[in-house]
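Consider this record:
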Amino acid sequence: MYACRCRSAATIGNRRGTVSPPSRLAGLTVAPASGGLTTLGNRRACLLRCAVVRASGKLTNAPTDLRVAVAGLGAIGTKVAEALDQGINGLVLSAVSVLNPEKHRSWLGKLTSKPAVLPIEALSDAADIVIECAPSKLMRSIVAPFVESGKTAVVLSAGALLDHEDLIELAKHNGGQIVVPTGALIGLDAVTAAAVGKIQSVRMVTRKPILGLAGAPYIVENSIDIERITEPLRIFEGTAREAAKGFPANLNVAVALSLAGIGPDQTRLEIWADPTVTRNVHRIEVESDSARFSMAIENIPSENPRTGRITALSVIAYLRKQRASLRVGT
């Protein structure tokens, strides 16, 4: 029997790579390889089959859907999971992980995709991409199994990466990838581009409503009573690395900015508790050898006052790019 070495045999269902029994493709019947045909005849039949499959558009390397897991079902995780459930081209919601599944049972029951509800340690076997939007202390246990398996981890707890920078090397060694989405910021494309050249300075000023900063470790440790202030108060000035330690649930945006630019020890940051604002306000100034630019964004808080609504939308936009025919932005 003539062994077909072309790719169409597998495409049309013959896993052994031999010419299969008579099949009607695009209105044409193709003869089988057996029944006395010579090797040349088998080859001709195979080539004819390939030509027919190509003409009919059936010889494709259509990628399978990427399986996405969501770790954490807070303000960000629920929005991302709902978007996947409603449909993102080429992606499927395969699993979720949450500390208290019973609390989310009703919400999970409304999803049409019915993802598996799994413990964190089981997610990497069920997905190709994980969206980490859990408490920062869980970041490593979520991300490590994925990048160690050569998969992708989208990290929202960017500040925690500064305490686990070995994860970047782990991803590099195993062909995995860590993605820090733009999140609640603006202009990271410009910062990344400027970093290809030389950036002299990056400075960020953040103003947040009182509720958006309440309970942060830096505020508690320094006994700052922000709940009684009646006018804007600067409560922090330092590096992005220092801010990540003092405000782990509030300033992941500063770490994302620093990783895109000149690093967490060179990126400067001011944080203001401001009772006059209702949105999370970020203003950024960048000086580089290619451009001087400034950016500002005023984010509407989500159900979680520490997080802007646009953060979840940023993750959804990233996921839509995975199988998009047109991608805009670097």
